[in-house]
Amino acid sequence: MEPSFSLPEQKRQRKRWRFILQIALSAALGGFLFGYDTTVINGAVGAICEVFNISSDDLGRSVAAALLGSAVGDLSAGWLSDRIGRRHSMVVAAVLFLASAIGSALAQSLFALISWRVIGGLGVGFASILTPAYIAEVSPADQRGRLGGQGRDPQQTV
Q: 54 φ, ψ to 5°?
């Protein structure tokens, strides 16, 4: 037999569910940005070669720089989260994404571009670890698995 809720209780449950879903979808944007970052560089390869007049080795370094940053971010996300909390760590990841996008767009040298890509990779690494953990933290126990999976799905979707 299903539990019956009064109308105000149903309203409160709906409002709570909506709030949790909004948090889960917002946090899942971290996963989307991970997939987006690793995909969008392909469209910029020609322009990077043209603007910086670089060799294929240097091009490979500029593309791989984000993956290097991501590896460091993956390994240090837990440490950062323990120090400042998951929510604040996700804000740090978002700031790193934003700074990387602006810095990469304004880069005047290959070194600057690679540096900004490493910084963006840090944000990617933080988000890819913190997103599922944060979603699981705020989700009701009976919905944790379903909502936690949303943090990873957008990475593969892009």
A: -115, 165
CB-based contact 73:95 (threshold 8 Å)? no
Q: Where are the domains of the chain?
A: 7-157
At residue 6, the 3 state secondary structure works out as coil
Return d(Cα 63, Cα 53) in angstroms, integer: 15
- CA 33 to the chain's CA centroid: 5
Second-level CATH architecture of 7-157 = Up-down Bundle (1.20)
> Which value, to the nearest 10 degrees, does the dihedral of the CA atoms of residues 89, 91, 93, 96 take?
-130
- Residue-wise pLDDT tens digits, 69-85: 999 999 999 999 999 99
- Integer Cα distance of 96 and 118 in angstroms: 10
User: Is the pLDDT confidence value at 156 over 60?
Assistant: no
Q: What does the alpha-carbon distance between residue 87 and residue 94 come to, in Å, rounded to a whole number? A: 11
Give 35 or 70, the one with higher predicted confidence: 70
Go through 22-31 and write b for each residue having 16 or more CB atoms within 10 A of its CB, e for each that does not.
Answer: ebbeebbbbb
SS3 125: helix
**Residue-averaged pLDDT of the chain:** 83
Angle between helices 56-84 and 110-138 (to 10 degrees): 40
